[in-house]
Amino acid sequence: MRGTHESTASTEGADPDWRPLPPRARGLMALNGALQLAIPGAVLGFVLGNVLASGLDLPMAWSGRVTGVVLPLLAAAGLGAWLGLRRHRHTHWRHDAQGLALRRGRLWWRETRVPATRVQHLDVTRGPLQRSRDLATLVVHTAGTQHSTLKLANLDAGDAERLRDALGRQIDHDDDA
């Protein structure tokens, strides 16, 4: 059964126009997911440990408090890493004559399209971990006030620069028309 699920999921973005994130982005996506859930997991563990200890009228030694924080922290970080890997697997992008499209998720599937005519300006950012893996984030600023920025993180650095240049040429072409 798992083999069927794996092959179905890997062909989800198999449309040749839709491109996945590069495999070397997997580690950063897992790290990001782990960090997003680790701190809330530790806080939740601390609070629940103290509530249970006081509710059951148990003396809670420091080792119990540490265990009450560390175990939920590790569990939440593991869950976050797994979710980050799933996020990597189910993120695809496409650039065509109409503009840029981003497809994310599986259970909560979302497709965002940015028409080239709505693009105001473009940024490429690269943090230290992204630079070490030759990755970048393309930031597309659009006309409008609500949801006016699209961030496509952990793209191949060359793809991010090519997308920036191509969308920039489309902006210049639209301005000349």
From TrEMBL:
InterPro entries according to UniProt: YdbS-like_PH
TM stretches of this protein: 28-53, 65-85
All residue ranges annotated as the YdbS-like PH domain in the record: 89-166
PANTHER family: TRANSMEMBRANE PROTEIN-RELATED (PTHR34473:SF3), UPF0699 TRANSMEMBRANE PROTEIN YDBS (PTHR34473)
Record keywords: Membrane, Transmembrane, Transmembrane helix
Pfam families: bPH_2 (PF03703)
Keyword Membrane tagged: yes
Protein name: YdbS-like PH domain-containing protein
Ranges for region Disordered: 1-21
Species of the source: Aerolutibacter ruishenii
